[in-house]
Automatic annotation (TrEMBL):
GO terms for molecular function: NADH dehydrogenase (quinone) (non-electrogenic) activity. One of its GO terms (cellular component) is mitochondrion. Residues 44-373 form the FAD/NAD(P)-binding domain. It holds the Pfam family Pyr_redox_2. Its EC number is 1.6.5.9. This is NADH:ubiquinone reductase (non-electrogenic). It is an enzyme of class 1 (oxidoreductase). The lineage of its organism: Eukaryota, Fungi, Fungi incertae sedis, Zoopagomycota, Kickxellomycotina. Residues 401-487 form the External alternative NADH-ubiquinone oxidoreductase-like C-terminal domain.
Length: 491
C-alpha cells in the first residue's frame, strides 16, 4: 500500500518520460534563454523569506536538481499559530521556531534583506543584517526567484501606532509583549501610585478582533487568571482587558454562531468587546477613540491585518501589483506578471501573504502559503525531472481549505470547517465533495466550539509542528504550564 502510494505520487505526468537530469535552460530554454550559471546542472533558485512559504520551499525543493539559496533577515522559521501562546509563557519561545540551517546542509543561507530585484540582469540587491556601523550590501544572482517575503502589520497610517503599539508577527514581538505584561504588573505594584493610576497601567488593550487579536486576548486572560492573580492578588480589581474593532462583530470571517459564542465567552471572562469603534490616534499612554474619547492603557497590542513590505512596494514598479490590496499579482501557476498583467515572468514566482491572484484572492494565512509552497516545489522538481515539461504544462494551483480555528481562552476554542464561501473545490470530483461535506458536517456538529474544539486545536497544531524537537517540547511545556504555571520573570 505504501509502495503503491509512493509510485503514484512520483509517477511522471501523463505522456511524459522521466528524463536524465538536464539543465533548467534545456528544459525551459524557450522561457529562460539559457543559463548563465557555471554549475549548469543545477539552476540557482533564490528563495526570499523563511516564513511559511519560504521554509516549505526550502524543505521540498530537490537539492540535487537545484542550487538553492535562501535570503532572509531571520535565520529561523516561526510557527505563527502558537505565537500568542509564547507571548504569555504558555509555551517557551524555542518551542515554535525552527532554524533554517538545520534543513539546509545543501543550501546557502544569507541573513540579509533583499532591497531590490533587477529582473533584466537576474540579480538581487541585498543588505546584510550584520552592519556594525556600515551598511554592507551585496548582489545575489538567480535563475529562478521565489518571492515569499510575507507582509507586515497594517497600521492604516494611524498616528502613533508604529511608535507605541506592540505587534504580534515574530518571536521578537512575542518577547516584547511578555516583558510588557509583567512590567505593567510590577509598575502597578509601586507604592507611590494611586488606585486610578494602577487602573490605567493595568488596562490591556487589543486592537483587532480577528483570529490573532482574539487568540492573544484568550491567552492573556488565561495568564492573568491562572498565574498573575495568585502573585498580585491586591491588583486584580484594577485589571481590565478590551478588544477594539471597527467591524460590527469580532471574528467576522467565522460562522456568526461561532463568533457569538466567542463574544459571550469573552464577556464571561471579563474582556470588554468594543466593536464599531475606530482608533484615530495612539499616544504613549492613551488611545484616542473616534477622534474624541481618550482611553488610558498600559499595553496596546495591534493586530489589524497586513500590509505590503518595503520590498513588495519596490517590486510594484517592475511587476504587476494589485493597487487595492498592495499584493503582487500572480497567475494560476504562481508566476508574477509583467506590469501590464498580460504575460507572466517565466522564472519569478511569488507565494504566501505577499502575493495573490487577481481573480481568486486567497486569505493571508499559513494554510495558503504552505499549500502554495508544496505545489510550487512539486512543479519545479517535475520540471527538472521530466524532459520537455514546463511550468505552464502543470494544472494551476488549487487551494483546499481545511477550516479555521481560534483559541478563545479557558481551554476553549472554536473551529469553523467552512471557508465562508463555496464549500466545493473546483478540482474535486463529485464523490470527494460529498465526503468532504460529510466530514465537515461531522466536525461542525462535534468539535466546533468549547473543550472538544480546544483539544482539536491543540492536536492539530501539535501534529503540524515541524521538528521532532518541537513535537517533544510543545506537549512538555503544555504539561509544565498546567502543573507549575507560567514563569513571570522579566529579563
Ligand atoms: C500571531 C499569528 C497567528 C497566526 N495564526 C494562523 C493560523 O492559526 N492559521 C493560519 O493559517 N495562519 C495563521 N497566521 C497567518 C500566517 O502566519 C501567515 O499567513 C503566514 O506566515 C504567511 O506566510 P509567508 O511565508 O507568506 O510570510 P511569513 O511567514 O510572514 O514570512 C515572511 C518571511 O520573509 C522574510 N522577509 C521579509 N522581508 C524580506 C526581504 N526584504 N528580503 C528577504 N526576506 C524577507 C521575513 O523575515 C520572513 O522570514 C497567523 C499569523 C500570526 C501573526
Amino acid at each position: 500500500m505504501l509502495l503503491s502510494r509512493f509510485l503514484k505520487r512520483n509517477a511522471p505526468p501523463a505522456g511524459r518520460i522521466p528524463g536524465s537530469l538536464v539543465s533548467w535552460s534545456q528544459l525551459n530554454g524557450r522561457a529562460l534563454g539559457g543559463l548563465r550559471h557555471a554549475h549548469a546542472m543545477a539552476p540557482r533558485v533564490v528563495v526570499l523569506g523563511s516564513g511559511w512559504a519560504g521554509f516549505e520551499m526550502l524543505r521540498d525543493l530537490n537539492k540535487s536538481y537545484y542550487d538553492v539559496t535562501v535570503v532572509s533577515p531571520r535565520n529561523y522559521f516561526v510557527f505563527t499559530p502558537l505565537l500568542a501562546s509564547t507571548s504569555v509563557g504558555t509555551l517557551e519561545f524555542r518551542c515554535i521556531v525552527e532554524p533554517v540551517r538545520s534543513k539546509t546542509d545543501k543550501v546557502s543561507f544569507y541573513e540579509a534583506t533583499c532591497d531590490a530585484v533587477d529582473v533584466t540582469n537576474q540579480t538581487l540587491s541585498c543588505t546584510s543584517q550584520f552592519n556594525g556601523g556600515a551598511k554592507h550590501q551585496f548582489t545575489v544572482p538567480y535563475d529562478i526567484l521565489i518571492v515569499a517575503v510575507g507582509a507586515r502589520s497594517n497600521t492604516f497610517g494611524i498616528p502613533g501606532v508604529g511608535e507605541h503599539a506592540l505587534f504580534l508577527k515574530d518571536i521578537k514581538d512575542a518577547r516584547k509583549i511578555r516583558q510588557r505584561v509583567i512590567a505593567c504588573f510590577e509598575r502597578a505594584s509601586q507604592p507611590y501610585l494611586t488606585a486610578e493610576q494602577q487602573r490605567e497601567i493595568l488596562h490591556f488593550a487589543v486592537v483587532g478582533g480577528g483570529p490573532t487579536g482574539v487568540e492573544f486576548s484568550g491567552e492573556l486572560s488565561d495568564f492573568i487568571r491562572d498565574d498573575l492573580s495568585k502573585i498580585y492578588p491586591t491588583l486584580m480589581d484594577k485589571v481590565s482587558m478590551s478588544v477594539y474593532d471597527i467591524a460590527p462583530t469580532i471574528l467576522s470571517t467565522f460562522d456568526s454562531h461561532l463568533a457569538n459564542y466567542a463574544s459571550k465567552r469573552f464577556q464571561r471572562q471579563g474582556i470588554h468587546i468594543r466593536t464599531k469603534t475606530q482608533i484615530t490616534t495612539v499616544t504613549a499612554s492613551h488611545l484616542v477613540v473616534d477622534d474624541s474619547q481618550r482611553i488610558p492603557y498600559g499595553m496596546l497590542v495591534w493586530a489589524t491585518g497586513v500590509s505590503p513590505t518595503p520590498l513588495v512596494q519596490a517590486l510594484g514598479k517592475v511587476v504587476a501589483k494589485d493597487t487595492r490590496s498592495g499584493r503582487l499579482v500572480t497567475d494560476g501557476h504562481l508566476r508574477l506578471l509583467h506590469p501590464d498583467c498580460s504575460t507572466p515572468f517565466t522564472n519569478i514566482f511569488s507565494l504566501g501573504d505577499c502575493a495573490g491572484s487577481k481573480d481568486n484572492p486567497l486569505p493571508a494565512t499559513a494554510q495558503v502559503a504552505k499549500q502554495q509552497a508544496i505545489y510550487l516545489s512539486k512543479v519545479l522538481n517535475r520540471v527538472r525531472r521530466y524532459s520537455n515539461w514546463s511550468v505552464g504544462d502543470e494544472k494551476p494551483f488549487t487551494y483546499h481549505h481545511l477550516g479555521s480555528m481560534a483559541y478563545i481562552g479557558g481551554w476553549k476554542a472554536i473551529f469553523d470547517p467552512s471557508d465562508g464561501k463555496s464549500k466545493v473545490s473546483p478540482s474535486t470530483n463529485g464523490q470527494a465533495v460529498i465526503e468532504k461535506l460529510d466530514r465537515k458536517q461531522w466536525l461542525t456538529k462535534y468539535v466546533s466550539e468549547g473543550r472538544l474544539a480546544w483539544l482539536f486545536w491543540r492536536v492539530s497544531y501539535f501534529t503540524m509542528s515541524v521538528s521532532l524537537k518541537n513535537k517533544i517540547l510543545i506537549p512538555a511545556y503544555w504539561f509544565l504550564t498546567w502543573v507549575l504555571g507560567r514563569d513571570i520573570s522579566r529579563f
